[in-house]
Structure formats: structure tokens, C-alpha cells
Write a structure and sequence with these properties.
Layout lengths: L1 H13 L3 H18 L4 E8 L5 E4 L5 E2 L5 H14 L7 E4 L20 E4 H10 L3 H11 L1 H10 L14 H5 L5 E2 L1 H12 L6 H11 L5 H5 L5 E9 L2 E9 L5 E8 L8 H17 L13
Antiparallel strand pairs: 1-2, 1-9, 3-6, 4-5, 7-8, 8-9
């Protein structure tokens, strides 16, 4: 009788729900993508319905490329909230401010000053990944403020160490870094309205929804992402919110030490979205309630 009583207590603890087993298969799919990749891969996903997180090499510390612009954006809105910067304040840029690389602002700059509001600079930084706009924002917000915010948020590997297009700094390994898990947590804070203020988070999300990159290309047309991408030789990154109906989630993907034109982001997006789409269609016990009963 005692043995039966003990088993009755232990067996429920050993039970596994379908979602946990599906998660293992999704991680196996991600591992298969990594095994076929000439480089390294890190992924983190957060189920925004349950808060559950799963990751594959989620602590990979790597160059962020333009994905570091999300922490810069957060610090910019913190400065606005504190009153040290105003979204409608105008700043003058000339050809001396040209940074090169991605973006469209350089073509508009000449000897005569071009005035842009802080809001316009932030939008160019996120939507167009404009490096000239980004460097202007960094000069206004400061690296120190960005990094202080990351310390406050307990994201120890997320650091802004250089401006955009500074190849000498990159050769010194003064890189802008983060991990899949840390960037996922930062994006989750924005989704939940817990970074700076709910209004600031909504403004940040609106800007991130303007980005058209690998997330948007890999997702079904009806699924809207709010993300930021980054790319430099050997690195592809992207992180953001995926507004999947019934099962929104955060996804953060970082690939590094890549050979040639390798880019695993779209393959990972497809695997992870299939995971959450299955959960969105099913109840806790695996019944696909999106289909009619027979």
C-alpha cells in the first residue's frame, strides 16, 4: 500500500505536456540548421502568452551589427522621458557627419546644414538602419547612458563600445555586443511596456514595425513582426516581436563566424514560427481546437 501511495505522488511529477516535447523537437530543428551552417548560431525565444523561454546557445556573446540600435533606441527614449532630449527638437547635420554604410541620409547631406528632429533621426536609425543618423543619436544620448541602462536592466553582455562604421575600433575588438537571451529579454520588456514607460514602448514598437528584413520575408504575410536586423561580414542578427495571432512571441537570432554569404535567420524563423503556430492552434493538451470537432 505504501509503494502504491508513493507512486501516486511521483507519477504526476514525471508527466510531460505536449508543448514541452514539441519544444525539444523545435530545438532539434534549430540544431540541424546549425549543423548545416558554416559558422555558429544562437537563438532565444519567449512565449509572450506564458512567459516560457527556450534557447539554443542563448548565451552566445557576439557582435550585434545594427541590432545594437535597439539598446540605443531604449536609451534615447529614456533621455526623452527624463527631459534631457525632446523628440521634436531639431539638430543640424552636414556632409562632415556622413558615416557611410547602410541608410539614405548621406545622399542628402552637403555643405549646407540639414535639420532633422530627434524623432526623425531615431526613425532613420531603425527603419533604414541609417548609420549617419545612428552616430548622431549616439553623440546625443552617449555611450555611457546606453551602457548604464543595460547595467540597470541587468544585461551584462549588452554593451555599446563604438560608433557605426568604425573599423579601427572593431579591429581592436571594441565591439557592440549582446547575447540572444539578453536581446530577447530587452525586447520582451518593450513588448510588456516595462522599459521607460508604456508610451515610450509603443513608440519604439511602431518604429520596429517599419523594418523590412529577414523576419518579415520568412513569416506568412498576415503575421506582423516588429524587429531590428544587423549585418556585418561574418555576422547576421535579428531580434524582435512576432505578432502571431493567439501566440505572440519574442525571437532573437544571432549568427557569427559565418563563411561567405551564409545567413540562417530565415530558416530559424520558419522553424520557430511553425512551433508557435502549432501552439496557437491547440489547447494545453494538444487538441487542435482551431479545427471543427467531428
Amino acid at each position: 500500500m505504501k509503494l502504491i501511495s508513493v507512486l501516486s505522488l511521483v507519477l504526476p511529477l514525471l508527466a510531460q505536456e505536449p508543448a514541452a516535447l514539441l519544444e525539444k523537437k523545435t530545438l532539434a530543428r534549430i540544431e540541424a540548421i546549425d549543423n548545416g551552417l558554416d559558422g555558429v548560431l544562437g537563438v532565444a525565444a519567449i512565449d509572450l502568452k506564458t512567459g516560457r523561454t527556450f534557447s539554443y546557445h542563448g548565451d552566445l556573446v557576439t557582435t550585434q551589427a545594427s541590432l545594437i540600435k535597439v539598446p540605443i533606441l531604449a536609451a534615447a527614449f529614456q533621455a526623452v522621458h527624463a527631459g534631457t532630449l525632446q523628440l521634436d527638437r531639431k539638430f543640424a547635420l552636414t556632409e562632415k557627419d556622413k558615416a557611410g554604410g547602410s541608410g539614405t541620409l548621406d545622399a542628402k547631406l552637403g555643405k549646407e546644414p540639414l535639420e532633422l528632429t530627434f524623432r526623425e533621426l531615431l526613425t532613420l536609425m531603425i527603419r533604414d538602419s541609417d548609420n549617419t543618423a545612428t552616430n548622431k543619436v549616439i553623440s546625443l544620448v552617449t555611450k555611457e547612458r546606453v551602457n548604464a541602462l543595460m547595467v540597470q536592466l541587468k544585461l551584462p553582455n549588452t554593451r555599446l563600445r563604438r560608433i557605426m562604421m568604425d573599423s579601427d575600433a572593431a579591429k581592436r575588438e571594441d565591439e557592440n555586443t549582446s547575447t540572444p537571451l539578453e536581446m530577447a529579454r530587452l525586447v520582451e520588456m518593450i513588448y510588456n511596456g516595462k522599459l521607460v514607460s508604456p508610451e515610450a514602448c509603443q513608440a519604439m514598437i511602431a518604429m520596429l514595425k517599419l523594418v523590412k528584413a529577414d523576419f518579415r520575408a520568412a513569416l506568412p504575410p498576415a503575421v506582423v513582426p516588429a524587429s531590428k536586423t544587423g549585418s556585418v561580414p561574418g555576422v547576421h542578427t535579428e531580434a524582435g516581436i512576432v505578432y502571431l495571432e493567439g501566440r505572440p512571441y519574442v525571437l532573437s537570432i544571432m549568427s557569427s563566424l559565418l563563411a561567405g554569404e551564409s545567413n540562417p535567420i530565415r530558416d530559424v524563423v520558419e522553424a520557430v514560427n511553425a512551433h508557435f503556430a502549432r501552439l496557437a492552434q491547440s489547447n494545453r493538451y494538444g487538441h487542435r481546437v482551431s479545427d471543427p470537432l467531428y
